[in-house]
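Researcher: Quick one. two chains, 404 residues in total.
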Amino acid sequence: MASPADAHGFAGKRFFPATPSTEDPAVADELALPSVTRFGGETAISGEYAKRLFGNFGVSVEGEWVHSTESGIVEEGFANIETAARWQFLTSAEHEAIATLGMAVEWGGSGSEEFGEETTVLAPSLAFGKGFGDLPESMNWARPLAVTGIIEYARPVHSVDDLGDPIPTALEGGLSLQYSLPYLTSSVSDKGVPGWAKRLIPIVEFTFDDPVRDAGDERFSATVRPGLLYVGRRIQLGAEAIIPANNEAGDKVGFIVQLHFFIDDMFPGSLGKPLWGSRR
Amino acid sequence: MGIEKMKRKIVIFCAIASLSISAAYAHAMLETASPRVGARVASSPTLITLSFSERVEASLSTVALKSGDGEAVELSPARSGASGHVLVANVLRPLDPGRYRVSWSVLSADGHSTSGDYSFTIAK
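Model:
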């Protein structure tokens, strides 16, 4: 019998959903397709497939198609392909906590000339998730809350491009604050919430991009992303507004919508289980 | 590929994908309970009834009950209820007023295990 900390984003009775704008902390068999982002004169359509090799270790591959009118002319093409390996080294059922180390590689030159840098970028990362279900019952209002976050250090292999312009090294990441109605109604208090509402998770994400070296003209930028997730049987739907948090992030509100498939629930006996070892 | 063409493909994809949306998790999640999660009830329940989003294997699932001071309360072994989604356990003696915690651990038909707990109160 598998342990309670089982598959896509569970730590004890806490379910950490896939977060549309920032990498969630769970290693899982999942497919995010499509993620559609409209922000700052760009429309991006991306897909990511993640596969567990072992119960707590997985790899992923991500591609993105971009349509841009940002510079006044229409440009279209593919961004560089990104791959990642992730190790979920901590899963605490008692404290509803998950932590994951990752290494992403954006493969230089794998995308279109307009959108793919020639140099490869390496990005080690640390992600975490923490639910507040272990708070005392006197703080029941806070127990459905959870936070997740990730910080990445994205460093290019070459610090200048073919034209001699600097390619910045950046700290990138984000945080999410979630209020889980599934958790509220199954573990804290069910006051007759309709069934469909028991699957909703209101969420606010914060993202940032801070060029820390060879920044050139680039500056710290940040966004705030309030939204809503619907967690279905085998899929999850998510939608968020993208609100610039500083001048560098622009002045127009955008959006992201994402359809997410839980492969481990769709194909529990084949594609949805780790290649080696037991599933958690 | 033009953006209109890409949009059409996405709409078709989403329409197909949405057909797979169902009103439950493939992992068995607690949907309703009696006594209700967090409820204050007037008298001792005779049954603990847990309804899940998926079919559960009753023989590989457990339901336990503890009083507010942590003392275990004897229940009958969990069994299937009105459907394969429902687990039922009898409360074998009348409960005193106070706070109680129900703990459950289930194995769903697709082999995923989940667990949880919640409290209810019997009024004085």
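Residues 1-6 of chain A have pLDDT under 50 and may be disordered.
Researcher: Thanks, that's what I needed.
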